[in-house]
Design a protein that fits this description.
about 0% strand, mainly alpha
Length: about 300
């Protein structure tokens, strides 16, 4: 297993920035989903994953690599990746279907904080107060964004299966992100084969539980393909590389900028309103992200370029 990335601050910083790019791309998830029309969740995941996996396969073929080369990975890597990618989406959709979306979404957004906390279990990672503090700022800011500062969060008693699913989703994605560090030797190209399998699983769920609805307009088709190239496909390759070789605590703290950027995009496209609460939330989330990425922004003297 190579530790070169961890010994080289420059490589680690680059990998962290690659992971951060995934966070930026995830901000487009809400707006693309809104444009994509009335397609059922599992059908959308099946198509989006297949789009991303298809592009990855083409890339592999163009490079002249054998098709099966990246698929030959240890079983635990398969379990963690397919379980993470597919399991997370199943639980999120379950949560949004069986609990009020606002509260379900907020519980799901515990994943960045959980990543920061779980990272303490990784060899060679030390958790500092600013990582946890930054993530907590982010969580409070996210609560403000989702509630608009007006709607009190009302966790309904009979919606607990949905809340449980939302917490399961947060747990799944954070565990996947942190456990992935254990498979730093598995190349990021392997995400392609993992996504093919996850896509087939989503297709099976779709055929079992949903009615097929095809996009009716060009813009709906483009949105679905956009999901596959971006937030529900392509971004996973960037995230995989980031969590394996970058600073996972910084990535956890930065992840809270996703709901902020997502809200900003919805406002820009006339799908949401800018309120005082949103502005306050923005301030909290940005401060939190800066605090959590202190290590990335301030280079210790010993590693500065002479």
């Amino acid at each position: 297993m190579s530790h070169s990335h961890h010994d080289d601050p420059g490589a680690r910083r680059r990998a962290t920035l690659v992971g951060a790019l995934a966070i930026v791309i995830w901000a487009s998830l809400a707006i693309l989903t809104t444009i994509s029309g009335a397609m059922e969740p599992f059908q959308m995941v099946a198509i989006a994953f297949a789009v991303a996996a298809g592009v990855a396969t083409l890339h592999t073929l163009c490079r002249g690599d054998g098709l099966m080369r990246h698929a030959r990975q240890p079983l635990p890597a398969w379990v963690v990746s397919v379980g993470g990618l597919f399991g997370y989406h199943v639980l999120v959709f379950l949560a949004l279907k069986t609990a009020p979306p606002l509260e379900a979404n907020l519980i799901n957004y515990l994943w960045p904080l959980l990543i920061v906390l779980f990272s303490a279990l990784l060899p060679g990672e030390r958790l500092r107060w600013w990582h946890v503090g930054g993530s907590l700022f982010g969580l409070v800011g996210t609560a403000l964004i989702l509630t608009g500062g007006e709607e009190p969060l009302a966790f309904e008693g009979d919606a607990w299966p949905g809340y449980l699913a939302a917490f399961g989703a947060a747990l799944t994605w954070s565990a996947y992100s942190v456990l992935n560090r254990r498979f730093a030797h598995v190349p990021t190209q392997a995400v392609g084969p993992f996504l093919w399998v996850a896509s087939v699983l989503a297709l099976i769920c779709h055929l079992m539980f949903e009615t097929t609805v095809w996009p009716g307009t060009t813009s709906e088709w483009l949105a679905v393909i956009g999901l596959g190239l971006g937030p529900a496909g392509g971004a996973f390759f960037l995230w995989d590389y980031g969590v394996k070789h970058g600073d996972i605590r910084v990535l956890g703290g930065l992840a809270y900028t996703t709901p902020l950027m997502s809200t900003a995009l919805l406002v820009m496209f006339g799908q949401g309103l800018l309120t005082t609460a949103t502005a306050a939330a923005a301030l909290l989330i940005i401060c939190g992200a800066v605090l959590a990425s202190k290590d990335l922004l301030i280079t210790p003297p010993s590693t500065r370029r002479r």
